[in-house]
Amino acid sequence: MLQFPIQSYKENVIYTQDGEAFGYYKVLENTVGINEQEAENTLVHHLQRLAWQLVPFGEIDYKIVPVPVDIDKRMDRLQKQYEGRYAEIGKYYAERAKEILREEAKHVVEYKFFVGVKLKRQELDENILGTFVSSVKSMNRYIQKLGGFKEHAVDDLTARMFEESEDDAFKVLNQYLTVQRVKESELRYIIRHQFVRGQEQIETGESVFSLTEGLLDPGKAGYLHIKQLDHESWCAFLPVSDFPVDLSYKEWAYFFQSYHFPVEVNMRTIYKGKKEDENKTNMIKKRFRDQDAQLIEANEDDDSLINLGRVLLHELENDIRNQGKPLLRTHINFVVYGKTKEEVRKRAKMLKLGFKDQQIELVQPLADQLLLFHQSLPAAKIVAEDWEQVLTPESFGESLFSLTRKIGNTVGFYLGKNISHEGESIGNSQSLVFYHPFLAQLGLEGSHYSSPHVTISGPTGMGKSYLLKDILLNAIFFGAQILATDPKNEMEKKFKQALTPELERSIPFFKELIESFNYITFSPHKKDAGKLDPLTFLDGEEAYDTAVAVLEYLSELQPSERNIKTEIYQAVREVVQQEEKPGLLKVVNRLMKSEDQEVMKVGHYLYEIGTNGVAKLMFSDGNVSGISLSEQVNILQIQNLTLPEDGEKPATRDEHIAVALMIPLAKFATKFARDDSKTKITIFEEAWMLTNTGQGHKLIKEMLRTGRSLRSAVYIITQSTFDYNRPDIKENIGTKFAFKAKTAEEAGNIIEFLGLEDNEANHKMLKNLREGQCIMEDMYGRTAKIQTDVLFNEWVNAFNTKENDKGRAETEEAFM
Question: Which residues form the signal peptide (predicted)?
């Protein structure tokens, strides 16, 4: 008869019925970037070394537990952070997100990794024993129960016996993996999980008996039926019955994480010592000799796989004899579960097929399901001996135990899905990506970056603006003040186009949201002239430097024309110091009156530019009213701006003026960001234009460097990451999104910018990204290929930057 193994538990240690103890530890997830073989090899090496170092403990219990993603709990925690004017609207959308994700993501889990180490008993000296025997704490367990002690209480003497070994285990594990001692609540979760697989886990109490409530029925061959009072589920244990000779790149504790259903893994390894290991290899050698005799008798040729096995066995014998390499007698079972037996049948079939592709055989034993259930319990003994596999540290390392697909934040708004694995899409991926725009600057444990700044890069039409607007609308619910530059003059137009009469009736919150934004439009009309004149909204040296930068850029002066530059500097200085209401037109007037003919010509040239078209925005006589940023969301739009081609330098005068306008616009945004009384986001659309000017590049660097201390995040939306791919800049960026690379050169630049491995697979992936797909690097330095996904139709319509095709697409597709 099977005996439940757990007698009691305390902190992170389980004490068994036969006086043994296991210490349990939670392994912090490891991640590797996309196609990053070097990082993967590093994890393999660490796992190999760990397998060697754990030999003295004798027995190790590895567990991968799929924990359901609690959408409601995450959204509830998110809502508590909402504040300010838009908090109630944010809560409305969080509730809608709950409803959608509950259905779309009902099987979504996060994989948690645990290691249990069998602890060595320490002999205590007589003084400690004598003191303890006289203590009330040494009462036997029966008396403890009668006296009302907690059933899971452990006497101090028992705990002291395993203290030193527990500390040793903790230190050894942390040499190769990052681990924490599990909390008692986590230990209870692992125990209770065994009895509610496929059901909601509800806290039942601390006693071992309450944790093990449930009726187990192995009546259906190959399955186990789990019954609770109000719920039931089915599960199947699938032990590994055969491993290939070579386990390289099999990733057998990782690849299944992309499946649409949860998979649990229980892996017990036992070390028996050098002598036993040598005996084991001798037994295998005998089998080879028997096979050779059979082949000779049957007059058959040698099997290539058998020949390879002989070579590996010879190497292993030498390693055991000369290096003391351990053998890991391993019992591995995978568990699938669900609401019905049919659901479990389909999942088991899919899992077995997936492992078969890796040349790993899983079986579904008809009669051993209850034995395998018992063997999966924490601290249990091996009772199903038939499925033992002998591994080396190298083959164990290839499991990639502790590797996870996690990207983004645990609590945040829904951003999309991780689609890094081949064949994944927004429709079939079960790996959700959440994002919080105000966590990076907190310097959380494990974070690689402590900066709130973000870059979003990629060519037109691939989804940059779509992603930006999704982040923008979600960010305002946290009470953040927003200033966005919109050189394309499209945001207000697209937002308000989405406000259909039907939408206004059904979702009035969206109308309230969109119409509350402060759209500040800069036009070529006389009423807007001078509104971006740096001498009107800046002071002192800052006004001087920015004015000089604008005039120099517009003048297109050559390095040899120092005399003209000098007079521009002097004219600006005089206007700033002498005029009560300075303005760039006053500077131009001084240049036009210069005795130097070349300077005078430049003055007239600047006058023509500054009094015609959109450039009027930068030139005033000083009599202009300031721009009000009284609202929480402010969007600066410029009409009739002729932008250069994607990422190209300006080729015409209009394009040159457009880039020049970005200088005072960026400076205006910098002034906004310096107010540290509120959390802020400053957004630079088409930011690549700024880097075409030295002043603009300087501004970006300044904001990235000081933003964290000013509670100000900068969002850089650009065609190319080239100008930001410098150590002093990219280290100040906390989160990066990179959409499709149009050229091989740009793909290489993105790879360097994101710290990806420079290989053919990553180049190919970047060039083949589709609309809405991008590579994300989060605040923890993790990278993944994600598909952005907006849950609300009215947002989708408002974010769409494509013009109405008037039926052209439908007509084209009709004849395909």
Answer: none
